[in-house]
């Protein structure tokens, strides 16, 4: 996946993302880090064509995103958002089976796949299959969201602050499990977050965005050593966090 | 003679008028659903047009029903005296709550749900039928319920232009200065309204439970 001079402007002319050049390697977890309004979510939506670039292009598996049929493109890209976006009128089983159903898999294969996916994200299928999203905790909803995104085995996974709304303990659990899962599944993952700690923990590389521009791409080990002022700002927020926990 | 004796003695005419009444309401509701639902769906996401159309429907609702029936009589094609004119006027009234609730019902569906539906690769048609409409159903049904109850009430006035229905007893009673005859029209009409309202209310609740 590659961004080539990608710009997205609102009709009013304001650029939310400007001149983005970025390559995402196969199988890596690229974290897009930035403050609110830095263009992270916009960048993500440009990939699955919920938004279309006003200038430049995005290559997906070597082809410009605009040459893909948007529906087929999206079915090949898993998508997880902050509130999970589960359909409240569908059971967990039906939610997870969404894309396989759209792709008209045979019923039996869908059922097997749904059970597999639920076990994969740590929800015993016999207990959770028939529940409605309203009977799940926030963490369980996100697990179902991840299971749904993975159900049709897409090569690419987009995640938009999936763990941001969870309590710290649940968040840490899910981050740990997700990291193990990502290493095992070898998907190309683009992960949006504003949390440096999460970025350092999950990313194989971190792309820092500031006001719609790419500041730089860093390996987690280099990130805190870099000299850009925006990185200092993020590093300082981390220090402040530590200071609060007793000045270690 | 009190009103239920009158009802019993004239039960065959009361029955016939009730059927006429139901027929008028049924036809008007069918037309206003056929217009209101697709129009409401077409207006989703078009805020400016939505304001115009709902504004126009609001204006129609402010016209007193007796006056609207009167206005329509001289209009060619749809006008004249009788049931068809009444059905046109009733449909105009009934369309507003359906239209408005279709628009608000769909607009109130959680944007995160719609975004993830699109992001997972559902076509706009699939998003509409599998996500937006089922989730908007309780609000939609509330609109249909309000429309139906209102329509049953206004239909009594349609007797003034010769459309028949239970209003015939009411106007006859007014002319005869006979309250029993008025009640013989008003009470079955109220009964119809209550039955329709509780029936639709049941659907509305069961759609909300899902």
Instruction: Identify the quaternary structure here.
Output: heterodimer
Largest sheet of chain B: none
Percent helix of chain B, as a range, is over 70%
Rounded mean pLDDT of chain A is 90
Could you tell me how far the N terminus lies from the C terminus of chain B, measured between alpha carbons in angstroms?
50 Å
Assess the beta-strand content of chain A as a share of residues: 15-25%
The low-confidence runs of chain A, each spanning 5 or more residues with pLDDT under 50, are: none
What is the gyration radius of chain B calculated from CA atoms? 20 Å
3D architecture notes:
The complex is a heterodimer of chains A (248) and B (210). Chain A has 248 residues and is of the alpha/beta class. In chain A, 40% of the residues lie in helices and 23% in strands. Chain A contains eleven helices and ten strands. In chain A, helix 5 packs across helix 7 (138-150). The termini of chain A are far apart. In chain A, 42% of the residues are buried. By secondary structure, chain B is mainly alpha-helical. Chain B contains nine helices and no strands. Chain B is elongated. The interface between A and B is medium-sized, with 25 and 18 residues.
Short description:
Helices cover 40% and strands 23% of the residues of chain A.
Secondary structure layout plus pairing:
The complex is a heterodimer of chains A (248) and B (210).
Chain A: E1 2-9, E2 15-23, E3 29-33, H1 40-47, E4 55-60, E5 63-64, H2 70-75, E6 77-80, H3 92-96, H4 98-102, H5 107-120, H6 125-128, H7 138-150, E7 156-160, H8 168-185, E8 188-193, H9 196-202, E9 205-210, E10 213-218, H10 220-223, H11 229-244
Parallel strand pairs in A: 3-8, 3-9, 6-7, 7-8
Antiparallel strand pairs in A: 1-2, 1-4, 4-5, 9-10
Helix pairs in contact in A: 5-7
Chain B: H1 3-9, H2 11-42, H3 47-62, H4 65-72, H5 83-107, H6 111-119, H7 124-155, H8 167-176, H9 179-209
Helix pairs in contact in B: 1-9, 2-5, 2-7, 2-9, 3-5, 5-7, 6-7, 7-9, 8-9
């Amino acid at each position: 996946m590659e961004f080539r001079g990608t710009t997205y402007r609102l009709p009013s002319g304001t650029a939310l993302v400007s001149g983005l050049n970025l390559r995402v390697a196969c199988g890596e977890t690229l974290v897009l880090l930035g403050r609110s309004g830095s263009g992270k979510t916009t960048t993500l939506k440009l990939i699955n064509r919920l938004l279309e670039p006003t200038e430049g292009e995005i290559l997906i598996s070597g082809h410009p995103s605009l040459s893909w049929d948007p529906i087929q493109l999206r079915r090949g890209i898993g998508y997880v958002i902050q509130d999970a976006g589960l359909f409240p009128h569908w059971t967990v089983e039906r939610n997870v089976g969404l894309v396989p159903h759209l792709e008209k898999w045979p019923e039996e294969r869908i059922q097997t796949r749904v059970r597999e996916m639920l076990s994969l994200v740590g929800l015993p299928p016999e207990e959770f299959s028939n529940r409605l999203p309203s009977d799940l905790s926030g963490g369980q909803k996100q697990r179902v969201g991840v299971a749904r995104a993975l159900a049709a085995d897409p090569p690419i996974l987009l995640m938009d602050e999936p763990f941001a709304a969870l309590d710290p303990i649940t968040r840490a659990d899910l981050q740990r499990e997700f990291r193990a899962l990502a290493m095992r599944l070898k998907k190309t993952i683009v992960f949006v977050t504003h949390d440096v700690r999460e970025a350092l923990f999950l990313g194989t590389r971190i792309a820092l965005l500031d006001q719609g521009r790419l500041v730089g791409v860093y390996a987690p080990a280099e990130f805190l050593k870099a000299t850009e002022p925006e990185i200092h700002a993020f590093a300082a927020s981390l220090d402040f966090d530590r200071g609060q926990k007793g000045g270690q | 003679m009190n009103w239920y004796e009158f009802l019993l003695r004239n039960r065959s005419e009361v029955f016939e008028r009730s059927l006429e009444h139901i027929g008028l309401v049924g036809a008007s509701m069918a037309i206003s659903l056929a217009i209101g639902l697709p129009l409401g769906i077409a207006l989703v996401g078009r805020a400016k047009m939505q304001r115009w159309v709902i504004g126009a429907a609001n204006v129609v609702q402010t016209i007193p029903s007796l006056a609207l029936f009167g206005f329509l009589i001289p209009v060619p094609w749809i006008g004249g005296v009788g049931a068809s004119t009444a059905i046109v006027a009733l449909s105009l009234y009934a369309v507003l709550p359906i239209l408005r609730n279709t628009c608000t019902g769909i607009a109130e569906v959680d944007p995160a749900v719609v975004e993830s539906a699109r992001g997972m690769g559902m076509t706009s048609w699939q998003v509409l039928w599998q996500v937006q409409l089922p989730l908007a159903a309780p609000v939609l049904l509330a609109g249909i319920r309000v429309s139906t109850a209102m329509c049953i009430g206004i239909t009594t006035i349609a007797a003034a232009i010769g459309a028949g229905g239970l209003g015939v007893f009411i106007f006859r009673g007014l002319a005869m200065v006979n309250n029993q005859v008025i009640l013989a029209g008003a009470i079955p009409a109220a009964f119809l309204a209550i039955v329709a309202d509780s029936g639709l209310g049941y659907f509305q609740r069961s759609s909300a439970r899902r």
